[in-house]
Structure of AMP-dependent synthetase/ligase:
Amino acid sequence: MYDKSIDIIRPGALAHGSSVSEYTTPVFPIQHCGGRTSPEGMGLAGLLQQQIRKNGAVTAIQDSTDRLSYAELHQKALALAIQIQAGNPGDTSPVGIIIPRGLNHVLGQVAVIYAGRVCVPLDEKLPDSHLASMLENLKSALVLTNATHQHRLPTFRHTLVDHSKVPLMAVDSFHPVFRSAWTSSHILHTSGTTGKPKAVDSMAEGLINLSFDSSDFVRHGQRVGHGASVHFDSALVEIWTTLLRGATVVVIPAETVLDPMALRAFVKTEKLNVLQLTTSLLTVTAFACSDAFSTLDTLLTGGEAINCDIIRLIFDNGAPRRIINGYGPTECSIYTLWHVISQNEALRGEIPVGKPIGNLETFLVNEKGHLAQPGEVGELLVGGPGVARGYIGNPEKTAQSFVTMPQLKSQTTRGIGHVYRTGDLMRTDENGVHFYLGRKDNQVKIRGQRVELEALEASLLETRLVSAAVVIKITPDEVERGQFLLAFCIPTTHESTEGAILRAYISQFPHLMVPRIQLISDLPLSSTGKADRRALERQWYEQIERSRDFAAALEIDSDDVAVQVERIWLDVCSLPAEHLVPTADFVALGGSSIVAVMMITRINQALGVSMQARMLYENSTFEQLVQLVTRLQLNGDDLSAQSEQEIWLQDAQLGQFLRPQDTTIPHWQSPDEGRVFLTGATGFIGIFLLDALVKRPEVVQVACLVRAQDETTALRRIQETGRKYGLFLDLRKVIAVPGDFSLAKLGLDTTQYDHWASWASVVFHLGAKVSYVAPYSSHRQVNVIGTLFMLEFAKHQRLKAMHYSSSIAAYGPTGYVTGATMLPEDERPAPHLAAMQYDTGYSQSQYVAEMIVWSAIDNGFPVSIYRPGFVLGHSKSGLCNPDDFVSRLFTSCISLGLFPILPNQRKEFIPVDFIVNAILHISTSHNNFGHAYNLIQPDLTNAIDINTSFEILKRISRYPLRGVSYTDWVKSLSRRPDDPLHPLTPMLKEAVLGDKTRWEVYENMAEYGRANLRRALQDAPDILNCDPIEVIFERCLKTWVCQVESGLKKE
């Protein structure tokens, strides 16, 4: 059965910026594919149905732990398709998919096709703002996500994909929407000249044309490796060509793809028949182990110009049955031309890209638009099934690239002569075989991705850190090194360092390929007055030669690990440097996955270790890498002396299988509830929260878990804390519960534990251990294990919402270490692991604890996460916590008469009453569960840097203050043993990254997001309108001065 109202865009319609679902046209009768016929123009859903009927029990897809048969894939996709349609039956917009490579992603794509919608595979590594922009351009309303990403893009409707939880739907309960081959099936994004990605509207006929080509790229029953990133067009070949031919998709782990030895083993153990690799990845894999492909039937490569030396190497060491060289832009459904390579062609040194696939038509035309003769050079134009409709929302670029040339007589569904201009120059021989020659413009291909050099240059200029930029593609003589982009930049100021430029570039243009940066003082010009790219390239090669001379001069036979690693680093990365500083970062220097493979291979061979790709990225600085290699040599593969990072990652997995037993969540403010279970009541924020709770009429009682021997002692501790901050608590509502949340069952006996778990309407978990000098190990039991025990308590007896207090310190100094510039509130700490080793044990424990809480959210726990900034006193009374870091800092500076000058440093100061009011307001709505809230100044313009904070203090204080260097300030502090900040001098003095201390590495800290906070408080303007910091400082000053004068009296 076919739907007669199929989405088809009329000829030229998309050029006017229309959306993909505005036009309808009848189904076409027949489609021919390389001499074969797809009946009645059948689309992806219809053709997949044929395979399901024939191969129901055959494995359709498998990864390292699970597999789905064709029948299971079909039934689960039906269930998901129902969810997709049920959410908004009238919505026909494209569906974004933010799920990495694996079973869930493939299941998601099939479900979208079954629902009659268009798939938009997205790169989950891109920030939410960028993904949202891409989807808004497509007028999308729905995204499919897995558990890890379900809290992203909160303004979009979500459908969670977890194959283990999706039911097997009865096959007759829902029928897929059978769209024709001439409808849109996928939208993929490519780079553009303006830096804005182009949304390519691809039709199903392209994938079908490729799948049923007479070359039988994939055959029934074969096992096909799936290692491409899902947002790349090559992933569609691995997924859909495999499924449409009744074969099995075998997911290759990301780390395996980048490890030649592991990939070779995977190919053999998983008995792969077909493998697709980009030319760059093929090069480094073959260079490391040339027999990796000997057991394959078909090896397909493409994306860049092929290297004959590498192909000869494969032939000489055990080639697969056939090696196919493929060519094609995304706009023409992945592959347009391909060619089975012969050994003679590799020996001859010229490998063609072949002939058109299936029913595609190709033309070479000269500058006048006339057909080029065999042997003549012309631009390649492509017509026929597989040519995209155009770029959605970009009519100007569509009109430039998708043109009508009636003289070519190319009959397609979009009109006579509708072709795509590739911009690639080629020639053909007398047999019509194509040979790739180069580009007409400055577009290049790197690792399979098309890159507009002008876009990168314009984007670098937009950072305003450079006055001129020229980007070139470098192709090293040694093919195994891989190609890369190099940007020559003239800095605008002395602060425009390579690192600063890269951080700004990545922040503003996260979707663009990252070039290496080289600073220059002026640009060489050609005779036409334009930048001389060839001169710049020569200049770079000359620098590399000097660098290699230096590397060769290093002691060849040295057993020193640092010397050997430095020699490999300089050689592999082709760095024009005479020395590596300890903090030189592999990733920041533009180290691609290809270079990473080569680096790992060389180090493993030269130093006799077994380093994995994950280890390189977790130890990406030169200093860290040397330490890692040393540990590997001492301890072997199984590092018995576990690194701290490994311990954190292991601890972060605690509780991942903890799941609530029911879904009913009490509204804690309802008349029959109102019972609050609170930890941290003897802390600064906790006591103010307790004071606010007992004043609320809807709160019946507050049970405070306090570390104490008995109830009397516990209650006395609460009273003393209240008096300390001028609070006169209404103790009639307070129940003191002696216990300890770092112990199992909170240190209570079973009867008490069961009682309080049944009694509580809601849990506020604010308790934590805070020490700026103690290591992670001393924080672990309280902050990590204690959080796990509180989650168990929240689900025990009945499910209760938990409001968990974390810290902005959970990200560590990620701005300085990783280059991050923006931290949306729902961004999890995991990507910022590399920064945590430079922070305190307390921050490290918050990182791990928050990861545990996010896992709980993924598993269905109703939890909200609050990350307070640096807590000031009360905004009205000025009362402060004299023992916290903020009060100690300002009291110390006033007493010393000195403050440290710390450029590009922000401390997110916020008054305690704002934190309390925000938590209570956010906690009243169940709509706020599953998100994090940065409790900082809601208005970014009110946030100030640390130097401005000291200047305000200097202006309002009656004590004289002057700024000195950080080093001089610490020296002065260390000479005053009675200073309130003196106990923290070990932390303040210890260099953790190069010569920088823990405080200094917070330079250039990323901006903390505020969107969730502002949304949740939009109906509470009295809370949202927080006083400016200067006003709050004036109120807190009297507390700090009193502390100073009290200290002077003691002296």
